[in-house]
């Protein structure tokens, strides 16, 4: 079978040489070249994966499945560690354990961190609920105070009206007094034709007209 031009170009120097192991040398170079190219493709593929909701060990299993046997543990280790949270990566990066053991360690650290975050979130929620309760109680107290003030204001107004009403009701018309009934009741607003003698205001109005 004829080789593609790009393949021939890659081993052209070996073909032109006078060495006796041309076939072995060309095969080795091509295998290394395409293996490197395949690793780059796999690396590019695995770069798009993130931890998300998975455990570190689950992420490693998925990356192994995608990479197959053509990606080395060293490359896989570097890619996998790069996807770990900083708090986990800083602990694992100094460990000499193999990749499978590292993933087990990462799971345990991940679970501990998740528990801490849950407790922290619960504590934050507890503090927030306490603050909201205090605000609610304060609003309730202010509302009750306003109702109490309005009630007192209505009570004072009612007493004032009753007091005025009683003061007017105590004053009764005296037929023998200085004013007629209409001037007694309406004062200056009394129409002149309503005034009845004897009335001191009638005399006053008559003198003003003269």
Topology, pairings included?
Elements lengths: L4 H12 L5 H26 L8 H12 L5 H10 L3 H7 L6 H72 L10 H6 L13 H10 L1
Helix pairs in contact: 1-2, 3-6
Q: Ranges with pLDDT <50 over ≥5 residues?
A: 117-123
Strand content: under 5%
Order of helices and strands: HHHHHHHH
Proportion in helices: over 70%
Gyration radius, rounded? 52 Å
Structural class: mainly alpha
Largest sheet: number of strands, sense, barrel closure: none
Number of helices: 8
Total strands: 0
Shape: rod-shaped
C-alpha termini separation: 146 Å
Mean pLDDT across the residues is 72
What features would you highlight for this structure?
210 residues, 8 helices
What would you say about this model in short?
The chain has 210 residues and is mainly alpha-helical. Helix content is 74%, strand content 0%.
What does this 3D model show about the protein?
Residues 147-171 are annotated as: Disordered. Residues 149-171 have a biased composition (Basic residues). With 210 residues, this protein is mostly helical. The protein has a domain at 1-35. 74% of the residues lie in helices and 0% in strands. It is built from 8 helices and no strands. Helix 1 packs antiparallel against helix 2 (22-47) and helix 3 crosses helix 6 (99-170). The protein is rod-shaped. Residues 117-123 have low confidence and may be disordered.
